[in-house]
């Protein structure tokens, strides 16, 4: 389980870095960082609009992978295995915890005979 969590964390970091890089490389309406890295010059390789389509689709795929990794890590982080019922199919018996000093009487006496609220005074002969 720990190996799966580690692999998902690595995948999440890599997809996050990929999304950041691809968003910065895309050509926006104004002057952006994509022009500084040569985003406009790659039009000859992908065609006139091929670069924008390629970058936007790759960004969408990486964002989807990031979302899946995040949900998977959340589910694995909240997973608590249920207690085993054992070979015989019954829950294991545990001893009741000893009550701490100052604990309330109803909490300490749960499941046992009710305790007297005040001790009885000894009888004094006359």
UniProtKB/TrEMBL annotation:
Keyword Transmembrane helix: yes
Transmembrane helix among keywords: yes
Origin superkingdom: Bacteria
Parts of the chain that traverse the membrane: 54-76
Region (Disordered): 88-109
Membrane protein topology class: Multi-pass membrane protein
GO cellular component, one term: plasma membrane
Biological role: Involved in protein export. Participates in an early event of protein translocation.
Family of this protein: Belongs to the SecG family.
Name of protein: Protein-export membrane protein SecG
Native source species: Cupriavidus gilardii J11
């Amino acid at each position: 389980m720990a190996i799966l969590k580690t692999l998902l964390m690595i995948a999440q970091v890599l997809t996050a870095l990929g999304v950041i890089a691809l968003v910065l490389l895309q050509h926006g309406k104004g002057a952006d960082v994509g022009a500084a890295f040569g985003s406009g010059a790659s039009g000859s390789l992908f065609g006139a609009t091929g670069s924008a389509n390629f970058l936007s689709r790759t960004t969408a795929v990486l964002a989807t992978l990031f979302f899946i990794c995040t949900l998977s890590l959340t589910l694995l982080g909240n997973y608590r295995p249920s207690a085993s019922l054992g070979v015989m199919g019954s829950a294991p018996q545990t001893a009741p915890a000893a009550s701490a000093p100052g604990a309330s009487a109803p909490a300490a006496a749960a499941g046992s005979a009710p305790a007297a609220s005040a001790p009885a005074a000894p009888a004094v002969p006359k």
